[in-house]
Amino acid sequence: MHYFYYKGKGLYCENICLANLVKEFGTPLYVYSRQTLVRHFQALNSAFTEIDHQVCYAVKANSNLAVINTLARFGSGFDIVSEGELRRVILAGGNSQLCVFAGVGKTEAEITFALENNIYSFNVESQPEIERIDKIAGRLGVKAPVAVRVNPNVDAHTHSKITTGTYENKFGIGFGQIPSVYKWASKLKNIHLKGIQMHIGSQLTSVKPFEEAVKKVAPIAIELKNKYNIEFFSIGGGIGIVYNHALVSGKPTWWKKPENKGILTTELYAKRLIPILKQTGLKILLEPGRFIAGNAGVLLTKVEYIKKTGHKNFIIVDAAMNDLIRPAFYDSYHEIVPLVRSSRGPIKADVVGPICESGDYFCKDRVLPKVKPGDYLAIMSTGAYGSVMGSNYNTRPFPPEIMVDGSCYGVVRKRQPVEKIWEFESIPDWE
Ligand SMILES: *Cc1c(COP(=O)(O)O)cnc(C)c1O
Predict the structure, then answer these.
(1) What is the mean pLDDT of residues 379-403?
(2) How high is the pLDDT of residue 255?
(3) 93 shares a domain with 238
(4) How far is the CA of 247 from the centre of ligand 1 (A)?
(5) Is 11 helix (H, G, I), strand (E, B) or coil?
(6) Residue 178 and residue 47 share a domain
(7) Residue 10, SS3?
(8) How far apart are CA 372 and CA 307, in angstroms?
(9) Both 324 and 190 in a single domain?
(10) Which of 55, 62, 79, 104 to mutate to test ligand 1, by most ligand atoms within 8 A of the CB atom?
(11) Same domain, residue pair 267 and 323
């Protein structure tokens, strides 16, 4: 559930008419709903009240300082994957002691910084990494909290680029090696074996793979608790969201509901997992990213041209794959709706950006209302893995980001001035 909806003809975010934001800030423009972030956080958090747990929002989904700050205020911890993300969490008022540090390639500098800031745990992905952490912790005279990421070899049945829990993936340590790795690590002087972790993939719309993986890992978690007194079991993130009917009300009459692949609710997720998790007696960590931020953001864009080739129609807009790469990278579906609802249309078209790549599109052969140059569109469900994956490709500045909270709104990232793009470049004085 989110707070984007039509009121009259206008598309709103909470109490703010998006057409007004476009007038004030121009396009392309990201808009986030603060109430939606909070609502998603609380839905998941309250679904697990029955057991000792901590939600650690996966910062990589949307690392804007205002997003981190909002979730920190409601008690969220954070799943981070770089020193930069940890610095963001600290800067935004988050608690570093509620941070778990994931990723296969942690550098010495990153490990040092994380230890100096007393993070909750490293989620480690290999034995060489544990050795490195042990060495650095020894140098600093501390014990490093560590959980091994177990690869349960369960297929999440999601897009190949976001499947992480099979032996084809670079992530985690194989299921069968876990006992020997813990035994080996328990002898390292500067390592505190604090937990066990898994994360099988992203955008899962069925509870089954989660259930399968948790069932597989829970007995090992219990064994590790008995042997090494570990405290927590992190079940990762990956809860999928609805992309294909992101806007539930206000359809034009010709609109056909796209096939709905089902929705994974927090209630179902909790109901199926809690009974298994409870038996471990461990504190449970949850690392949702997309579930919290995905439907809390939209990307607004202006129609520049309508190009009809006789073969196809193209709606050429001012946002591009550098602003939102998901359709090109993951073949992802994003609902696209006009900021001002009209009964014109329909037209079958590709919505494309101005970048010189065939991959620069937001949808293909989609039935949309007939728009004209100067109209505005909202690309829905772009709060997660949207702006964070942006680039300056084609020397296009990063778009501004606005956060709405009820009847208020604030700029949470200014539009990047174009000169800033080449700020750190220079031409050597060859002569
Ligand atoms: C990316 C990631 C997450 C968050 O994934 P979502 O699908 O956005 O919930 C959680 N944990 C780890 C280790 C990750 O890499």
Answers:
(1) 98
(2) 46
(3) yes
(4) 25
(5) strand
(6) yes
(7) strand
(8) 11
(9) no
(10) 79
(11) no
The per-residue pLDDT for 254 is 47
Provide the CA 331 distance to its chain's centre, in angstroms.
Answer: 16
Main-chain phi, psi angles of 180, to 5 degrees? -70, -35
CATH of the domain at 330: 2.40.37.10
In the chain, how long is the greatest CA-to-CA distance?
Answer: 73
As a whole number of angstroms, the distance between CA 107 and CA 100 comes to 15
The token duo for 402 is 């606005």
**Residue 160 confidence class, pLDDT cut points 50, 70, 90:** confident
Q: Which of 289, 317, 334 is the last residue of a domain?
A: 289
3-state class (DSSP) for residue 155: coil
DSSP SS3 for 284: strand
Query: Which of ligand 1's atoms lies nearest the C-alpha of 102?
Result: 13
Domains of the chain: total: 2
CATH of the domain at 112: 3.20.20.10
Whether 139 is covered by a domain: the verdict is yes
State whether 277 and 332 are in the same domain. no
SS3 100: strand
- Where in the sequence is the domain holding 197, given as residue range(s)? 35-289
Atom of ligand 1 nearest to the CA of 384: 8
* Residue 272 and residue 304 in one domain: no
The residue among 64, 89, 95, 54 whose CA lies nearest residue 293 is: 64
Query: 5 lies in a domain?
Result: no
Mapping DSSP to helix (H, G, I), strand (E, B) and coil, where does residue 83 land? helix
Q: Which residue has the tokens 């602003």?
A: 323
Task: Give the atom of ligand 1 at the shortest distance from the alpha carbon of 289.
Answer: 8
For the question of residue 356 being annotated catalytic, the response is yes
Given 13, 17, 99, 356, the catalytic residue: 356
Q: Are residues 312 and 165 in the same domain?
A: no
**If you measure from the C-alpha of residue 239 to the centroid of ligand 1, how many angstroms do you get, rounded to a whole number?**
9
What's phi and psi for 144, nearest 5 deg?
Answer: -90, 125
What is the per-residue pLDDT across 11-22, written as a single tens digit (0 to 9) for each?
999 999 999 999
Return the number of other C-beta atoms located less than 10 Å from residue 119's C-beta: 24
pLDDT band at residue 345, thresholds of 50, 70 and 90? confident
Interval between CA 93 and ligand 1 midpoint (Å): 21
**Which of ligand 1's atoms lies nearest the C-alpha of 203?**
7
Q: Measuring from each residue's beta carbon to the nearest atom of ligand 1, which residues come in under 6 Å? A: 58, 60-61, 79, 102, 199, 202, 236-239, 287-291, 384
For the question of whether the overall pTM of this predicted structure is more than 0.90, the answer is yes
Q: How far is the centre of ligand 1, averaged over its atoms, from the C-alpha of 237 (Å)?
A: 5
**190 and 73 fall within a common domain:** yes
